[in-house]
Amino acid sequence: MNQQTEPPAAEVRIRLPRGLARELFTLRRDPLPKMSRPRWLAWLPHAVLGYVAIPCGVLTGMQLNDHYGVFGSAVLGLSLLTSASVVLSMFRPVAAWWLGLVTSGLVAWAIHGHVGPGQSWPWTPAGPFTLAPVLLMVALRVPPRVTASVIGITLALNGLADILLRPPRSQTIIGGVALLFAFVGILGYALRATRLTRGKLVEQETLTEEERARRTLLEERSRIARELHDVVAHHMSVISIQAQVAPHLVENPSEELKENLAGIRENALEALTELRRVLGVLRSERPDDPANPHHPQPTLGDLDGLVDNVRGAGLDVTTEIAGIRRPLTPGVELTAYRIVQEALSNALRHAPGSRVEVGIAYGPRDLHLCVANSAPTRSAPPSPGAGHGLLGMRERAGMLGGELAAGPRPDGGYEVSAVLPMDPQDLPAVPDSETKRAS
Question: Which residues of 52-69 are buried (b: 16+ CB within 10 A; e: fewer)?
C-alpha cells in the first residue's frame, strides 16, 4: 500500500514547481484593469504609469552619464529599455519584469569598469526605483507566491553578483534594495487583495439581489396560491353539495342519474382532498394572515373600505368607475383588489401628500385598472420594504393572462395600469413547451 500512495505525493511535489515555473516564464497578456469609479478617470492608472516610464528612462541615462561616465549609443538603448519595461508592465507584467531584470543586468555590465570608490554596484542609485514600478505591477496582478518568487530571484541575482563580480572599493546597497522591493511587494499584494475583495463583494451583492428578487417572487406565488386555495376549495365544496342534493330535487331519479351524481360528488371530494393536501402546506399559521381560512378573500366590493383607510392615512384619493359594474370570477376579483391595494400602498409609501386617482373600467371582455398619483409634496421616509411590489402585481396579472404596466408620469407622479380578462378560461392554453421554458 505504501508503494501505491507514495508516487502521487511525489507527483504533487513536482507539479508545484512546474506550475510556478509556468507562471514565471509566461508571456500571457494580463492588462492593467481600469478604474471603475469615477468613470471619467478609468484610464488614470495607465496615464500615470506611462508618465512614470519617461523619468525612469531619463534618470537611467543621466546617472550613466553623470555618475559613471558611460556615454555612447548604449546609454540611449538602456534608457529606452528601462522605459519600455515600465510601459510593458501595463499589459504583460511578468514579461516586463524579465525585461527590467535583463536591463538591470546590462546596466551593471556597462558600469562595471566605471565604478569608483564608494559608488554602488550592480545598481545605480536610481536603478532600484526604476524597477520598483514593474514589481508593483507584477504584485498587483499575479498570485502572492509568484510575486515572492520574482522578488526573491531579483535579490538572489543581486546577491550573487555582489559576491562574485563586485568591483573593488564599490559599495553594495542590497539591504536598501531588499527593503524597497519588499515594501513594493507588500503594497501590491494589499492593493490586489483589496481589488479582489471588492470584486467578490460586488458579485455577492449582485447574487444577493437576484436571490432576494427570486425569493420575493416565490413568496408572492405562495401567497397567490394560498388565496386561490380558498376560492377553488369553496367552489369544489359547492359542487360536492349540489351533487349530493340534486337527486332529491328530481322526481323518481333514475339509477344512472344517481350514479353519475354520486361520481361527480366523489370526484369533487377527492379533488378537494388533494387540493388541501398539496396547497394546504402553503397556508400561513399566523391568525392575522389575510389568507387565513377564517378571513374571506377581498373583492372589488371591498374597495370603498380600502380607499377610506388610505384616506385616513393622509392621501387624497378619488375613485371613478366606468362601464356596467357586474360580478367577476373570484380570481379576477381578488387579483384586481390586490393590484389596487399594492398600488395605493406604494403611493402612500413613496409619494406622501400626493393626489391619487383610482379608475376601474368594465369592458366587454376586459377589466381595466389604473392607479395614478401626482408628484409628492414632501420627501418620502426610508422604506423598510423589499421593493418588489411591482413584481407581485405583474405575477398576479400574468397568472390570469393579463398585462400590467408601471412607470413615472411627466408631472413627476407615478402610474400603474392593468388589463385583466373577464373570463380567464377563454384564454388559449399555454403550450407545454412554453410552460417548461417559463419555469
Answer: bbeebbebbbebbeebbe
- pLDDT for residue 427 is more than 60: no
29 close to 92: Cβ distance less than 8 angstroms: yes
Distance of CA 30 to the CA centre of its chain: 24
How far from the centroid of its chain's Cα atoms is residue 190's Cα?
Answer: 24
Contact 63, 124 (CB under 8 A): yes
In whole angstroms, what is the distance from residue 63 CA to residue 19 CA? 39
Set of cell numbers at residue 207: 447574487
Please report the pLDDT score of residue 12 as a whole number: 37
CA distance 374 to 412: 7
Residue 96, classified by CB atoms within 10 Å of its CB into exposed (0-12), middle (13-18) or buried (19+), is buried
What pLDDT does residue 217 have? 75
Contact 257, 247 (CB under 8 A): yes
Please give the Cα distance from 340 to 327 (Å, whole number).
Answer: 17
Interatomic CA distance for residues 159 and 230, integer angstroms: 84
Kindly report, residue by residue over 201-249, the tens digit of the pLDDT: 888 887 787 787 778 777 777 777 666 666 676 667 777 777 777 777 7
Asked if the model's pLDDT at residue 291 lies above 70, the reply is: no
- 3-state DSSP assignment of residue 360: strand
Give the C-alpha separation, 402 to 420, whole Å: 5
